[in-house]
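Hi all, posting the design record for the shared folder.

TITLE: backbone redesign
STEP: 1 of 1
STRUCTURE INPUT:
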């Protein structure tokens, strides 16, 4: 059934005569069910014209199986990037590479500027889908987003004032919220078309997003009067090319008085000189996260790239030895590496390893079997004898919080080789075995003061176990609170860590080797080899 009734006829006739398209007429008449919007544009226009000519209250229209009429868009090239003009086509490429309409037979809507005309027809959707399919992303669903030129809000405001005035003559009212939003109508029409063409559902929670950005050459011309009346609404922003953003325009429209608006902007709005253009069609996938544990066997390997004053000090790092493989396999643009604490360049990480997580930004491949992840882990391990990875797995963003909780709350076990200036006997170190839960104060070490704030941190040495080596060396196994600076606990850092091994033994002590033997964080879950 045709969605308009006799009550709508006067408004529909008024809008149509001023250059408004059928779908926008439906919006202003409050048509909030989807089916009428989905009909091909030419069919809609014909039925609307018939309705306005008839004296009947309403016109019966079969919508279950509408005839296969459609606005014919020119046959574009395989990719939107390579579009070319032909004389009778409706879509062409402007000088800046954007997509625009060039068909003189189409009267561009004075409200939506063509958005609800050709830009929601099947032919346009197909061209967008070609771009999506050529992007190389893996996806099983998608979220579709659109960005419209900001002056659409101005033109809609003008049309609303016109319709409100006409309806007032009939003692009827029309609030701003009574108009179906342009973006809603656009999605009603295009979502089923995208879903059908790509063979996947539209899902607002999908990590894969397809975004279409529309622009119009008359944006400044249509909006500049608002900046003169409401200058506070239009402040330049570093990341915005124009002050006329949708939010700024809406803010100004909410502030401006109706009489001031009507003095400055035509009501009904004038027909535009051009149709909208498509500035860009972008595909992006939300980040995915990979976690595991790593062992580090080298005493000449930093955890992250070691670069000082722009100069690289060592050729590789734990981060790169792992992430380079992940970037390649997931086909991601970039990554962010994090771990449960960090070890110095000359410290090994043994035992069951240190938990780590890697955020892979905009990955093109996201679906892996557990066997494929195992093979990826093996590939990392075969590539270097400096590190090994275990328990590699896909995780959620939320799960990474378990790793960060362990940085301060859990315990860590270390093994250190210690030198003393004075000769010692086995009996000189045995008393350390009896010390439990020793509280120490650590002022930020001098060696990390350039990257950590100056503070005094209270830490706990839970237990110590000694092994005599010779009169100047012994091994010390420590279980400590996470976040303890072990090297400073041994040599005292010029008195900045109190007490320390040197002060406890009344000697000058230094650390020659340090190994992390365990990081007691129960994450990520252990996997079977």
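Okay, here is what came back for every position:
SEQUENCE:
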């Amino acid at each position: 059934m045709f969605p308009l009734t006799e009550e709508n006829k006067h408004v529909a006739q008024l809008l149509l005569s001023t250059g408004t398209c059928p779908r926008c007429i439906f919006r202003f008449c409050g048509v909030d069910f989807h089916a009428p919007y989905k009909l091909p544009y030419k069919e809609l226009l014909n039925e609307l014209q018939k309705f306005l000519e008839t004296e009947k209250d309403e016109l019966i229209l079969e919508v279950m199986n509408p005839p296969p009429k459609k606005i014919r868009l020119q046959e574009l090239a395989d990719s939107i990037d390579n579009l070319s003009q032909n004389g009778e086509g409706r879509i062409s490429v402007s000088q800046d590479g954007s997509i625009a309409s060039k068909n003189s037979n189409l009267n561009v809507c004075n409200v939506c500027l063509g958005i609800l005309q050709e830009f929601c027809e099947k032919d346009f959707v197909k061209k967008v889908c070609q771009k999506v399919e050529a992007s190389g992303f893996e996806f099983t669903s998608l979220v579709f987003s659109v960005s419209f030129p900001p002056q659409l809000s101005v033109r809609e405001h003008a049309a609303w004032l016109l319709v409100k005035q006409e309806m007032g003559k009939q003692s009827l009212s029309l609030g701003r919220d009574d108009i179906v939003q342009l973006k809603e109508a656009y999605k009603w029409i295009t979502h089923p078309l995208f879903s059908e063409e790509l063979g996947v559902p539209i899902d607002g929670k999908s990590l894969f997003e397809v975004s279409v950005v529309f622009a119009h050459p008359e944006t400044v011309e249509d909006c500049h009067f608002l900046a003169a009346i409401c200058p506070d609404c239009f402040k330049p922003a570093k990341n915005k090319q124009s002050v006329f953003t949708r939010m700024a325009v809406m803010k100004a429209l909410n502030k401006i008085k109706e009489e001031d608006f009507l003095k400055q902007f035509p009501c009904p709005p004038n027909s535009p000189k051009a149709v909208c253009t498509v500035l860009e069609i972008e595909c992006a996938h939300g980040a995915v996260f990979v976690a595991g544990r790593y062992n580090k066997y080298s005493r000449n390997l930093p955890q992250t790239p070691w670069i000082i004053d722009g100069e690289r000090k060592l050729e590789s790092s734990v981060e790169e030895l792992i992430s380079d493989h992940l970037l390649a396999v997931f086909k991601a643009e970039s990554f962010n590496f994090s771990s449960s604490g960090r070890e110095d360049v000359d410290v090994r990480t043994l035992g069951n390893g240190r938990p780590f997580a890697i955020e892979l930004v905009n990955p093109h491949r996201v679906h892996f079997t557990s066997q494929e992840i195992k093979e990826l882990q093996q590939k990392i391990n075969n590539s270097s004898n400096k590190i090994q990875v275990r328990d590699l797995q896909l995780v959620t963003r939320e799960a990474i919080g378990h790793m960060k909780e362990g940085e301060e709350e859990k315990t860590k076990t270390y093994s250190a080789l210690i030198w003393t200036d004075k000769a010692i006997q086995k009996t000189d170190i045995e008393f350390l075995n009896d010390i439990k839960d020793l509280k120490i104060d650590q002022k930020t070490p001098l060696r990390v003061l350039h990257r950590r704030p100056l503070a005094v941190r209270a830490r706990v040495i839970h237990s110590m176990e000694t092994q005599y080596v010779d009169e100047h060396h012994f091994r010390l196994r420590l279980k400590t609170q996470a976040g303890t600076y072990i090297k400073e606990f041994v040599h005292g850092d010029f008195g900045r860590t109190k007490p320390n091994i040197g002060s406890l033994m009344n000697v000058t002590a230094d650390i020659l080797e340090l190994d992390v033997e365990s990081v007691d964080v129960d994450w990520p879950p252990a996997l079977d080899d």
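COMMENT: Residues 288-408 form a domain with the Alpha-Beta Plaits fold (CATH 3.30.70.2510).
Let me know if anyone wants the other runs.
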